Amino acid sequence: MSGPTRETQLAHLERPKAPETTFAVVSDAHVTADAEGTWKVFHRTESRLEAVVADVNRRDVDGLVFAGDLTKDGTPAEFDRVAEILSDLDAPYVAVPGNHDVSKTFDDHETPPLSSFVEAYCPDELPYRTRLGGLDVVCLNSAADADGTLREGHAGRISEAQLDWLVDAADPETPTVAVFHHPTTHVGRLFDRFPETDHFQLRNADAVVEALDAADVELALSGHIHWPTAARVGGSASRASGGSAASDGVTQVTTPAACSFPQGYLLVRVTPDGTAVSMVPLGGDDDRTEAYRYAVADGARDGAVAESTDEGYFDSFPLLDERALEPATSD
């Protein structure tokens, strides 16, 4: 195993450019007090989210955004535990729901309604726009749909109504970042070790990318796949790595899961010269080794997690390098 042991540069981006702004992005914490094992290392989920809170509290951040799946299965007890842990967070935070935070037809429990999630984690009804430092952050719901079709599984879609709202709500004078749970890019097409599972990508990914581009959104941040990626999508710029910044299209970044290997979150540092996205590991060497061993034992993502790690995936960072940046130092 050769996983990350310190803050690692995931992407150097030409955009967004804004007055200095730093925020954290956390996804797939899957908090539970009632499960153990699997490659999601359920028995460590509480301590991993506690580690996020402790680490973010020692940094000078403008805020924290959760990209979904705060809970294992959306039970009231799990949401209560998340709230208890987050009560120690000093920074302001907002969230979007993930597929595990909303009601499913196969649940054997009563998941709180989406309105309860909105009341707890959103400054306004979904979708919404909020301000972090010099940025606008637009938050969209890819996990729940009014017609109930997303209740049958773990797929994601962003409704046409939300996409229409996005184009109208975005301020062309302000650098804008979007956050939603399911990504526009399919990890299996970026890195062929990963399976072509249909729910790894938004069902209407092309329409979402078109709307993001039309709204001049410069960066989209997602979770769901439990693996860090960075890719340019849309416009004439579709590419997985390297090259110079394009004049159109959107950069899609997925954050690692807080619960499973490599157990981390993202720090996004925006400056007037561009943006650096860093991956911050959670826990020490023993924690990463444990998570890696669970990934091996469970064949996580058809073995892609362990195989990609063994083949030096994390040595290939940054995955996107649009501008030369000095390596960031940990605070």
What's the layout of helices and strands?
Elements: E1 8-13, E2 21-26, H1 45-57, E3 63-66, H2 76-86, E4 93-95, H3 114-121, E5 128-132, E6 135-139, H4 160-169, E7 176-179, H5 187-190, H6 205-214, E8 219-222, E9 229-233, E10 250-254, E11 264-271, E12 274-281, H7 285-298, H8 304-310, E13 320-321
Helix pairs in contact: 1-2, 4-6
Quick tags:
13 strands, single chain, alpha/beta, 331 residues, six-stranded mixed sheet
Short synopsis of the structure:
With about 325 residues, the protein is of the alpha/beta class. It has helices at about 45-55, 75-85, 115-120, 160-170, 185-190, 205-215, 285-300, 305-310, and strands at about 10-15, 20-25, 65, 95, 130, 135-140, 175-180, 220, 230-235, 250-255, 265-270, 275-280, 320.
Could you please describe the fold and organization of this structure?
With 331 residues, the chain is of the alpha/beta class. Helix content is 23%, strand content 20%. It is built from 8 helices and 13 strands. The strands form 2 sheets. Strands 4-3-2-11-12-1-13 form a 7-stranded mixed sheet, with no helix packed on it. Strands 5-6-7-8-10-9 form a 6-stranded mixed sheet. α1 runs parallel beside α2 (76-86) and α4 runs parallel beside α6 (205-214). The two termini are 26 Å apart.
